[in-house]
């Protein structure tokens, strides 16, 4: 059954370029459900190419070859500040919400991953286990597990409760992996390397392999069993990951596809020449929007999109057998840990003093009661 078309919520779309520039757009629908894409700003905050960008509501973070992370408040149209903890190119950024706060994860050519607290932009932790530049990372929806990949083909699974590596291995193949993503349910992850995308279970078992003719540059999960890929073949392909022999749909671009994003049943694709196309994944045919930014003079490197306002909080779903489990440690932010801390605080406190002093006090008390 095909769902009826719905109007997308107002959405921020941000593009990064080779010249260090950022372009911000607003995606919205009018009363006739026709989509409009409006340019809000365009300027060059980075000294070199922008490598990555991340959005959470109206909070934007961008990272580049100049080794800086820049933070912006799009609702107020101001730059919040610059983060300078890394000593190498910033390769990936991701906003994460744990039980009670917003965090920003970043990885860099300095072989480290930084965890930033968004309330005051303090670097809470710098994770180090790789011996080569970290090219990408993916934090699980539970905010308790993360994956990271490096140029030396190393893959690390992190226990974020302890801030330590729970598992590491070398990926197979002649080329180092270029990107990693969790599925929406978090029961499997995708790993892109050269011309193929491999999907793995959380146990590390290979579930399927999506083979392409040319190199894959980007990927985006649409739902738990549908994946979009783009790259050098100038085509966006839609795959059913359960039957990965051939793609179920293909959308063409004029240039190589550099980045993909998915919001409200709309798939956004951007090519290296500044071309942006917006497709309704429920329907086949022409894109709902086909435009070009800066008349083709902006060479795009990345794209990110998010609703202008965070959706309302949803109740936490109980863990099932398909979710990632961290069995060796309980998250300090979990309800179980809070309950344990409350129980411990209700235990009676021991009298002050050393053990021998307490024994003497106890004997004196017993003698006094006998008298």
UniProtKB/TrEMBL annotation:
Gene Ontology molecular-function annotations: kinase activity
InterPro entries from the UniProt entry: PAK1-Kinase_Regulator (IPR051959), WD40/YVTN_repeat-like_dom_sf (IPR015943), WD40_PAC1 (IPR020472), WD40_repeat_CS (IPR019775), WD40_repeat_dom_sf (IPR036322), WD40_rpt (IPR001680)
Stretch list, region Disordered: 308-371
WD repeat segments: 43-82, 83-116, 127-168, 209-249, 250-282
Residue stretches of biased makeup (Acidic residues): 320-331
One GO biological process term: ribosome biogenesis
Basic residues bias (residue ranges): 357-371
Listed SMART domains: WD40
Protein's UniProt name: p21-activated protein kinase-interacting protein 1-like
Naturally occurring in which organism (per UniProt): Gracilariopsis chorda
């Amino acid at each position: 059954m095909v769902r009826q078309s719905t109007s997308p919520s107002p959405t921020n779309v941000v593009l990064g370029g080779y010249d260090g520039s950022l372009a911000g757009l607003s995606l919205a629908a009018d009363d006739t459900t026709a989509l409009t894409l409006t340019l809000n700003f365009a300027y060059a905050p980075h000294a070199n190419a922008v490598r990555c960008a991340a959005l959470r509501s109206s909070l934007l973070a961008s990272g580049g070859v100049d080794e800086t992370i820049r933070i912006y408040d799009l609702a107020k149209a101001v730059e919040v500040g610059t983060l300078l903890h890394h000593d190498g190119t910033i390769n990936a950024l991701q906003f994460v919400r744990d039980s009670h706060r917003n965090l920003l994860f970043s990885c860099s050519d300095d072989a480290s991953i930084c965890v930033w607290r968004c309330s005051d932009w303090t670097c809470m932790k710098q994770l180090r286990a790789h011996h080569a530049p970290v090219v990408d990372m993916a934090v699980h929806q539970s905010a308790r597990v993360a994956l990271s990949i490096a140029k030396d083909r190393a893959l690390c699974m992190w226990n974020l409760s302890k801030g330590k590596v729970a598992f590491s291995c070398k990926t197979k193949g002649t080329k180092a992996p270029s990107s990693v993503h969790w599925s929406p349910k978090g029961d499997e992850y995708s790993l892109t390397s050269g011309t193929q995308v491999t999907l793995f279970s959380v146990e590390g078992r290979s579930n399927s392999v999506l083979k392409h003719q040319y190199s894959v540059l980007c990927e985006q999960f649409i739902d738990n069993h549908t994946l979009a890929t783009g790259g050098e073949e100038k085509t966006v392909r839609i795959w059913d990951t359960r039957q990965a022999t051939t793609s179920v749909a293909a959308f063409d671009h004029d240039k190589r596809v550099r980045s993909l994003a998915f919001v409200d049943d709309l798939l956004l694709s951007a090519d290296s020449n500044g071309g942006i196309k917006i497709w309704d994944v429920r329907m086949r045919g022409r894109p709902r929007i086909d435009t070009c930014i800066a008349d083709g003079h902006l060479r795009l490197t990345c794209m990110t999109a998010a609703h202008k306002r965070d959706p309302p909080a949803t109740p936490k779903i109980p863990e099932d057998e398909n979710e990632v489990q961290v069995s060796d440690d309980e998250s300090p932010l979990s309800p179980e840990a809070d309950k344990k801390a409350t129980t411990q605080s209700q235990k009676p406190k021991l009298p002050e003093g050393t053990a021998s002093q307490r024994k003497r006090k106890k004997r004196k008390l017993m003698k006094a009661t006998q008298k």
